[in-house]
Amino acid sequence: MNQQSQQIRLLILLVYLSVLFVTCKMAFGFWFPPTSEKGLWFYSGLAAILLGNLLVTPFFTKPVDAIAYAVAALITLLAVNVWVLRQYTSFDRFLWSAAMAYASMIVIAGILSIALKSGIADARQKVSRSLYFFCDAFGSPRAMFSMMFLFSIVCFHRSTAREYLIISLAWALVIGMSPLENAAHLARRIREIWNVSFPSERIGDVMVHQNPGVVLIRQSASAAVSFGEPLILCYPPGPSHLGMALDSIGFCDGDWRRAIHLKTAPDTQKHLAEIAKPDDSAACLALPKVASSMVMTAVNDSAWLKRSCMIGLVAPGTNISRLVVDIARIDLDIEEGRLVEVSIGDKRVLYQVIDGATKEEIIQQKDTRGYVRAEAKKIGTWNANLKRFEIVKWIPQPNAPVFLVELEPSQRNKEAIGYVPGTPYLVSIEPRSLVTHNAAILGVLGAGKSFLALELIERLISANIKVICFDLTNQYAEELGPLYDGSGEADAIRVLRDAGPPGRDNVQQNVEEGGSIQRFKQLVREYLSRFLNPESTNRVLIFNPAEFEVWRQDSKPFSGRASMVALTPTEITRVFTEAALEVVQGLGMREEARCCLVFEEAHSLIPEWNAVASEGDRTATNGTAKAILQGRKYGMGCLVVTQRTANVTKSILNQCNTVFALRVFDATGMEFLKNYIGEDYAGVLSTLEDRHAVVFGRASSCRSPILVRLNDRQDFLSSFRPTTESSQAWEDL
After folding, report:
1. At what angle do helices 40-49 and 6-28 cross, to 10 degrees?
2. Is residue 544 located within the same domain as residue 607?
C-alpha cells in the first residue's frame, strides 16, 4: 500500500466501507450498526480501515500515532467495562483485561520512545529505536483495532451464531486478507514488468566524469532540475546508473550541473534498464514520477537518505587532520564552529568548520565559475558511553558526500565545561591532568577568562585538589565565597601582613638576614604547611601579592643604615611558590595532583624577561618557573590566567599542556598559540564570541583542538554546586 496513490487508497476505502454496511444488513437486518456494544465491531473495523494503510497513516506508525490509537482503544474499552455487568462471564472479563493491558503497553512504549529519543547516549538511542519499531508493528491502527474487533466478536456476538459467523467472515475478508490492496499491488507489479507507461525525459548530455562518482551534465535549455532530484545516467553500451542532481556550476552552451552516483541494489539496476532507452548515449534522463517510488524506496545511499542536510563533496587538499569541502548549496546555515560529518570506512566522523574561501575555475574556454570551499578540522567519532571524541587516523574518499550536523539544544551536564556550538556534544576536563601537566587560559579582557578559571577551581576542589590563588583583582574571594573561609583565614593573613612592615628598620650585618623577608618566608611556610597537610579540611587559599609589604636589605650597613627595597608582587609570588614546593617535597613524591597554584593576571606575577619592572622581578620569575617545573614530581602544578600572552614568561607557558584560548588579538599571542592549536584554529581566535574558546591538551576530553561554547557562570553554579539540602556536606568537604 505504501506505493499506491491516494486516489487508489480512497477508492479501496469506499469499497470496504460498503462491505461493512452489507455485513451489518446481513447480520442484524438493518443497514446502520447499533450504537450499543453490539456496534463495537463496526466502528473498530471502520477505524482500522480509515486510520490504517488507506488514508491517515499509509506508510508507518510513529510512536505519537500509536499513543493516539491506543488511548482511543482504552476509552472505548472503559465505555464497555464488562466487570460492572453481571451478565458477562469471567472469560469475558479476562478478554477485557487482556485488551486493556495490550493498549496500555502500547501507550507506555510510545511515551518511552519519545522520551529517550533526545538522549545522546548510544544505549538510550537503541532503546528508543527498538520501541519505535515495536510501536510501528503492534501499535498500528490495523493491529490495534483488530484487537478491538476480535474482542467485540467474542464477548458480544458468540451467543448468536448468525452474527458471529457473518461478522467474523467480514473481518477476515476486509482486515485479514486485504484483497483490494493485494490486487492493486499485483496490478502495479504487472505494469512494471511490461513497462508501458514510463516515458523518460532527456535532461541533457553527460560531458565530464570526475571519478569517483561525480559527473558534469550539460542541460538542455528546456530542462529544469533542482538539487536532490533523482536522475538516470546512461553510458551505453554499459549499464545505466542512478544519480542525484547537485549544484549548477555555470553556463556554457547550456546550464552545466553536477550529479553524484548513488549506490543501488541489483533489482534497481533492472528497473533502470527497463526505463532507459537503449539508444540513449551518454545521456542524463529524468526519473519518471511513476517509477520514482518504485526505484527510490530501495536506495540506501547516504547521499540520498540525508540529502536535506548534504552541503557538498570532499574536495582536493583534504588530509589526515583537515577536511576541504566543495560547497554544493547555499540554502543551509553554514558558519564557523558548525559540525559536519563524513564517512571514513564504516565510521561517522565529525569535523568542525573553521574557515571558508571563495575559489574560481575555468569551465570551458574563458568561461569561469565562482564557488566556495569550506575547511574543517577533524574532531573524531563520538563515543556516547565515554562521552568523548575518539581519533580516526585516516581520510575520507574523494567526492564523498559531506553533511551538516543538525542543530540541537545542549543540555546541562555537571561534567561539561562547555559544548560544541549547536550540538549536545559535551567537552569535559580531567582535573588531575589539568594540574600535573599545567594549564593556561589566554584571552583579551572581557572574553570570560576569570569565570572559566573560577569554574576550573571549583572542579579541582571537587576532585580533592587543594588550590592556592594569587589574585590581583580581589574577585576570587567573593566568587568562591561558599568554598573559601575568608573570615577564618583573615587572622592568618593578618599575621603575614604584620610581619612585613617592621622589616624596613631591620638592618643586619648579614644582608640576607636584614629586612623582613626571612621572617615572612618562615610564616608562609608554616601557613602553607598547615594548609597542605592531608588532615586539613581547607581546600582553597586566596592571596593578593600586592597587599603584602615585605622588605629586603639591599646593601651592606653603613653607620647603622642600609638600602631597603620592598618586594614586588612578582617577588611575593616567588616566596609563596617556593614555600609550596618545599611543603609538597616534604610530603613525598606523588604522581597524583595534590596542589594547584592559580596565577590570575599572570603577566604581572610571572612576567617575561623583557617585560619586568626591575632586575629583581626577572630573578623572581625564574625562581617561580623553576619551582613550577620541579613541582610536578610532587603533585604540584599551575593554572596561568592572562590577557597578555607576550608578557608572561615562556618558561612556564611552554610547560602548559592544556590551553584554553579565548578571543586574542595580539600577533605574539596568536603566534604562540599556533604551536598548540595549529594555524587553522589560531586564525579564528580574533573573531571568537564571548564565552567561546578553543580547547586543546592532555586534560581535554577531545584529543584534537576544538571550538567550545563555555558554560555560563549561573548555569554552571546551578548544575555543579550542591543544592540547599546538601550545602553543609559541601562546606564539610
Report:
1. 170
2. yes
